[in-house]
Amino acid sequence: MEKSALQIARAAYQPKLPKALRGALKAVEGEPTQSVADQEEVKKLFPNTYGMPYLRFEPSKGENTPIEINVGVILSGGQAPGGHNVISGLFDGIKKLNPKNRLFGFILGPSGLVEHNYKELTADIIDEYRNTGGFDIIGSGRTKLEKKEQFDKGLEILKALDIKALVIIGGDDSNTNACVLAEYYKSINAGVQVIGCPKTIDGDLKNSEIETSFGFDTATKVYSEVIGNIMRDCNSSKKYWHFIKLMGRSASHVTLECALQTHPNITLIGEEVEAKKQTLDDVVTYIAEAVADRATRGLNYGVVLVPEGLIEFIPAIKALIAELNDMLAANQKDFDMIANAKKIEYVLSHLSPENATIFRSLPESVSRQLALDRDPHGNVQVSLIDTEQLLAEMVGKKLAEWTKDGIYHGKFQTQHHFFGYEGRCAAPSNFDADYCYSLGFNAAMIIAAGKTGYMSSVKNTSKPVDQWTAGGIPITMMMNMEKRSGEMKPVIKKALVELDGKPYKYFVAHRTEWARDTCFVYPGPIQYFGPSEVCDRPTKTLVLEHE
Description:
Radius of gyration: 24 Å
Distance between the termini: 44 Å
Structural class: alpha/beta
Low-confidence stretches: none
Strand order of the largest sheet: 1-2-13-12-7-6-3-4-5
Number of strands: 15
Mean pLDDT: 93
Largest sheet: 9 strands, mixed
């Protein structure tokens, strides 16, 4: 396969490692932990892996004791830049422990474990994928590991390959599955450790010990480059309002970070919409007022950033979705047997009067997405809802009314965009290349420490790599109980945008200026070679959170 000049140059890049992981090290245990909420319920479900201590690695004198162990690895869920470097770091880490150690990759996600579909990842294979984007080294999938039959079937191949540790690279759902798997294997003394790595470009898998999920840095820089390009075009033609929807179904971290990087005129933050109990009309009016204000100064153009999951943050629609989820979970068999043409009518007949009224008020395309087009886990597929186009149309209608009333005298022409897949498989930034390699290498050290049910944790990441610290946290520490498909289940709690956090407060302090004036910033493409302040800079979010 022919490679570009950039691919060839990136293949030679050696990711940087924290000092604590470079030579001999020792594992230092900290305080016992507890789940973020619902402690008693979570403890009952995870009696073998609950309450384990924090883990920190420190440099040590001498040599580490060689450990002979085969390791398996799974890429789970949607792609995120840097996944290949996690695997590269894991490979190098276990080879450092003992050159005889072998790494096996399970093909197309968790289903590869259950279906015994795997391949050994040798040095020749690993070297082809270092510092590259995508998950194509072994592929990924969204199969949930949650049933005893799956665990037992997976254990068959783990024993056949003499695999004593399994690393699951994924987001909150995937690492929830890792935690359940670790608990089960510990409960039956299977002799298999399970370690998680925090992945998701959405940025919603983080806490005090997981400062950022990998891929977020690269993806937001890719989106910000394209947003900046659109802003430059907008500033040149001076005639379009660009409505841009950004990936992030459950949190607005991507949208906020892109706003901090590019300074758009209007940015919607779903968590703020929910906190203020805003209606869809409130949101539309907010945008229309900003458009009208700019028009008074002849500025009939601008940029609006919209988080993918905005619809779910509007309280009235969130309540509707919650009732829909419960209703569909309780009546799934009956619902599946009804002809598609009659499903909307069925839904309406089973909703409360209040939610039925809201459901009827929505555009047909939105109501269809909410009720019919669900993903395999029963979730609303918010990425399929053209929220950016819906908002543009509704703002246009409101401005038309204001024109008739003599309130508005500008021009309103729109363009619509959705940036999602464009960022998922990008070549990782230096930050993500270093961070992901460190996460993988660190996972190997957690395995060597004999731990299971832990997530790889690399901290102090707003500083140069030399100052990063490494260790692990029990996945149970991140758990709480939530309703899924009508049942209460243990899941990793999603990290939403904190409205009292520094990144959001910085945004609020500047958004009025960005709305009224043209303060666009053009970040340009990711830089891999050059001064550290250009090539190794972390996200604005990370800097603000740790300043």
